[in-house]
Design a protein that fits this description.
This protein is mostly helical and 79 residues long. It has one domain. Helix content is 75%, strand content 0%. The chain is built from 3 helices and no strands. The longest helix has 38 residues. The protein is elongated and about 65 Å long.
Amino acid sequence: FPISAFVAAGFEHSVANMYFIPFGIMLKDRVVVSGAENLSWSGLWSNLVPVTLGNIVGGGVMVALVYYFVYRHQAHKLN
């Protein structure tokens, strides 16, 4: 469920984009692929930088905050 919700919300993942965008660039000259004519290598980097920064903030800060709020009472009781 979490991965489906992540995709359904329209978020992007940098590792997935490292595969899908170059794959689309390689296939864009094929007749059966439509809508990929705007893909480029510079577009990959324009996408990859903000998506990677967002993944770092989302994974490093937001997840850490959730764990902090969930376990802060238990840590206080142990001390």
